[in-house]
Amino acid sequence: MLSEILPYFLRVFHFLWPRILCLEEVHYMWKLGGLRVLNSYWINEDSTYKYYEVILVDTAHAAVRNDPRINWICNAVHKHRELRGLTSAGKKFRGLRGKGHLHHKARPSRRATWKRNQTLSLRRYR
């Protein structure tokens, strides 16, 4: 582990809890590969642990395929939503919850916004 190599004053002892929730979604995706992650949410916490619930959907089930409210997740474009940060926890960690002029630097992503601001684009005839 990295914390065993680093000296004490360089170790990081805090976690980003929205990121932990994203990682838990990915963890369940690897454990149960045939299911798709729909969403996840906080349940409870004590002094040591935080408890979350991850909602998984079996896309091969006939009830899911025939239900018009949920069968959108059966499409191939929704594979591995949790890896791309498209679940609610992923969007929260990426800072995409807000709207308006206060959050314009979060979209489409922080990296794309930084690249757009750092790039000088000039017209050919000016």
UniProtKB/TrEMBL annotation:
It holds the Pfam family Ribosomal_L15e. GO terms for cellular component: ribonucleoprotein complex; ribosome. Keywords: Ribonucleoprotein, Ribosomal protein. It comes from the Eukaryota. One of its GO terms (molecular function) is mRNA binding. InterPro entries: Rbsml_eL15_core_dom_sf, Ribosomal_eL15, Ribosomal_uL23/eL15/eS24_sf. The keyword Ribonucleoprotein applies. Belongs to the eukaryotic ribosomal protein eL15 family. This is Ribosomal protein L15. The lineage of its organism: Eukaryota, Viridiplantae, Streptophyta, Embryophyta, Tracheophyta.
